[in-house]
Amino acid sequence: MAGDATQVHLWADADVYYAVTGTAEPTTVTAAWAVGWKAVGLLDGEEGFTEAREEETTEKFAWGSRLVKKTHSKHKRTFKFVAFEDNTNTFAIVNPGSPARTGTITNSTVQTSSVKTPKYTEVAIGLETREGATVRRRLIKRADIEMTGEVKDSETDVSVYEFTVTVVPESTGVLYTDLVGYDQAGS
Fold first, then answer.
1. Which residues have C-beta within 8 Å of that of residue 155, sequence separation ≥ 6?
2. What share of the chain is helix, strand, coil (3-state, %, to 5)?
3. pLDDT of 10-20, one tens digit each?
4. Into how many domains does the chain fold?
5. Once rounded to an integer, what is the mean pLDDT over residues 134-149?
6. How far apart are CA 185 and CA 21, in angstroms?
7. Residue 126: domain span
8. Is 89 strand, coil or helix?
9. Could you tell me which of 15, 33, 149, 176 has the fewest CB atoms within 10 Å of its CB?
């Protein structure tokens, strides 16, 4: 039978990190994320990371209806994920350009935040998935991240934050870099 079952993955855990573009990226799957990378928090594992591609194609036909050329242009790559936590890091993504929240919620204090009209800037994104000792880190040097779903507060479901990451290619055309390896300490 052809195939290799070790190349089939059911990712048991994942994290999303973001940072200012140019922040040092990890170079191995075991290296700690450098200072400046912020974890989004708990993610919806059932939704996972959804990768989508869009591009325009043009087909050229010669007389007699014979296809002679097909071109591709305007390639776009996006990733979607859903976060559960309403923490300082997700607040910064949901409300780009708004000042950070102040204070912590305790019995005697109130957390304050002022939400302003969004002011988007490019960020670096790290998507990490783990299955046993196998780790994959997808490193995106330039991206736009925005909240694309609605937030619903209710008594029957947790509030969720759906994000779409639009990848901006590097000058060399690279969309992202994958690091895949084993973390024996993480198994």
1. none
2. 5, 45, 50
3. 999 999 999 99
4. 1
5. 96
6. 29
7. 5-186
8. helix
9. 149
Q: Which two tokens stand for residue 147?
A: 């909240």
91-128 confidence digits (pLDDT tens): 999 999 998 877 667 766 777 888 999 999 999 999 99
**For residues 113 and 98, is the Cβ–Cβ distance under 8 A?**
yes
Residue at token pair 């936590």? 85
What is the distance between the alpha carbons of residues 167 and 57, in angstroms, rounded to a whole number?
A: 20
Beta bridge partners of 67: 61
Amino acid at 162: E
Yes or no: say if 76 and 144 are a contact pair by the CB < 8 Å rule.
Answer: no
Looking up tokens 């048991």, which residue turns up?
Answer: 12
What are the backbone angles phi and psi of residue 94, rounded to the nearest 5°?
-65, -35
Q: Give me the residue label for tokens 């290619």.
A: 169
